[in-house]
Design a protein that fits this description.
Blueprint (H helix, E strand, L loop, with lengths): L22 E4 L16 H14 L3 E5 L5 H16 L5 E7 L2 H13 L4 E8 L2 H7 L3 H18 L3 E6 L6 H12 L5 E6 L6 H18 L4 E6 L6 H10 L4 E4 L13 H10 L10 H12 L16 E2 L2 H11 L3 H6 L14 E2 L7 H10 L6 H11 L8 H15 L1
Parallel strand pairs: 1-2, 1-8, 2-3, 3-4, 4-5, 5-6, 6-7, 7-8, 9-10
Helix pairs in contact: 1-2, 1-10, 5-6, 6-7, 7-8, 11-13, 13-14
Length: about 400
């Protein structure tokens, strides 16, 4: 039997060694909900989404910002208890500014709920942000140290997110990393807050921070958090992981502020294709569809992996090749005109008929309806399809076939 790998070649560099254990943090229920047009799910809906996120394989989930309101605090506590009661295998993370007042609710949850509560502390660091906010460097560094010292004293696990890190000069970033390394922080999160980074920039800053951590003697994770303002968030995340970032945070569907966060469904699929066994990619579409429903988010038809058009074609030569490949086996069908295998997502390559189709497609769609079309019937349908300005749905094909059979009779 033929093996599809015998016929495949790629120019991509082999970088799997840094990717097999890359963790994903799902920020859909916190950073994702900052989108101006996004609906905030109810608590019950959030619980459903948390469960599905864990099924996909998210190693940690950002559950909220408990200091912003009493309502948010109670929801965060309920979600933490939900994870505990359902024995879900994920880390529960809560957002906080570098203020003691923001950190105290997380400390309280950590001390009073059996499930561990982890803090994600953030602080803007770029000269631009400092100038606009009228902060000076010394004050910023003191805020960082105060927050790190407090959480270290309380023995609550925490990461420190360097907000706008990708626009922070090396000399300033080095001082921030030095303070964090002197604490018990478990991770430094490099944030491309304004989506300003390029892939080479992501690689360079991760390498820079990892070298500083290594010099300090600490064993600390480095994570990457990106936004999609320049349309580079997935590429940036991949290059960050290649440079040694062991965690990528973002949101499924890429929801979030402005142009959104890194779409984690794409990152998870990439990691899976690189050989990672951490993700159940067949769970991605159910999760994304429910997240879209609960956040009133429309999934673009052409969206990679999850879009309705992601594995669909009307084009004559392409459809004919897919149909030929189908006879050779599912792997050939999956890869002949796609870089992502539809079958492992529970989908298939969909052949549709429209104005760009050919005869092979016409025969296929009629046969799929249980008909045995003659060449005349297939050609008639194709001629009809070429008069339309988009693809034909099944009901239109059936109606046309019925009309043709009645005319023949």
């Amino acid at each position: 039997m033929n093996d599809v790998s015998r016929y495949m070649y790629e120019w991509n560099l082999d970088s799997t060694s840094n990717l097999l254990n890359t963790r994903l943090e799902d920020d859909s229920l916190r950073d994702g909900l900052q989108g101006a047009f996004v609906r905030k799910p109810t608590l019950a809906e959030k619980m459903e989404l948390v469960k599905l996120s864990v099924e996909v394989g998210a190693q940690s989930i950002m559950l909220g910002f408990p200091a912003i309101s009493e309502h948010e605090l109670q929801e965060c506590r309920s979600l933490l208890v939900f994870i505990e009661n359902n024995k879900l295998k994920t880390e529960a993370v809560f957002l906080a500014r570098s203020h003691i007042g923001d950190l105290k609710p997380i400390v309280d949850m950590h001390e009073n709920v059996s499930e561990t509560a982890e803090a994600a502390i953030y602080l803007g660091t770029s000269p631009l942000r400092r100038y606009v906010e009228k902060w000076n460097l010394a004050d910023m560094l003191n805020k960082c140290k105060t927050a790190c010292d407090f959480m270290t004293l309380k023995k609550v696990p925490f990461s420190f997110s360097v907000e706008d890190a990708t626009r922070t000069p090396p000399k300033d970033l080095e001082k921030i990393v030095e303070i964090i390394c002197q604490s018990d922080a478990i991770s430094i999160d490099i944030c491309d807050t304004a989506g300003a980074s390029t892939p080479d920039g992501a690689f360079r800053i991760v390498t820079f921070v990892k070298n500083l951590i290594e010099k300090s003697g600490r064993n600390m994770r480095v994570s990457w958090h990106g936004h999609n303002d320049r349309g580079l968030s997935v590429a940036n995340s991949i290059f960050a992981a290649k440079a040694g970032a062991t965690g990528i945070s973002g949101s499924f569907l890429g929801i979030g502020e402005r142009t959104g966060n890194t779409p984690l469904e794409q990152v998870a699929m990439y990691l899976h294709q690189m050989g990672s066994n951490l993700y159940q990619v067949d769970k991605i579409i159910p999760y994304c569809e429910l997240l879209a429903k609960y956040t009133n988010t429309q999934i673009r038809p052409e969206a990679p992996i999850i879009g309705s058009q992601a594995f669909a074609t009307c084009t004559g030569t392409h459809a004919a090749a897919v149909l030929k490949a189908r006879k050779l086996g599912i792997e050939f069908e999956d890869y002949i005109f796609s870089g992502v295998p539809a079958s492992i997502l529970g989908r298939e390559q969909e052949i549709m008929i429209g104005p760009t189709s050919g005869m092979a497609t016409s025969y296929h769609v009629l046969e799929k309806l249980g008909l045995s079309p003659s060449e005349e019937e297939a050609r008639a349908l194709l001629t009809f399809a070429k008069t339309r300005n988009q693809y034909l749905v099944s009901s239109e094909i059936k109606q046309f076939a019925n009309c043709e059979s009645q005319q023949t009779a």
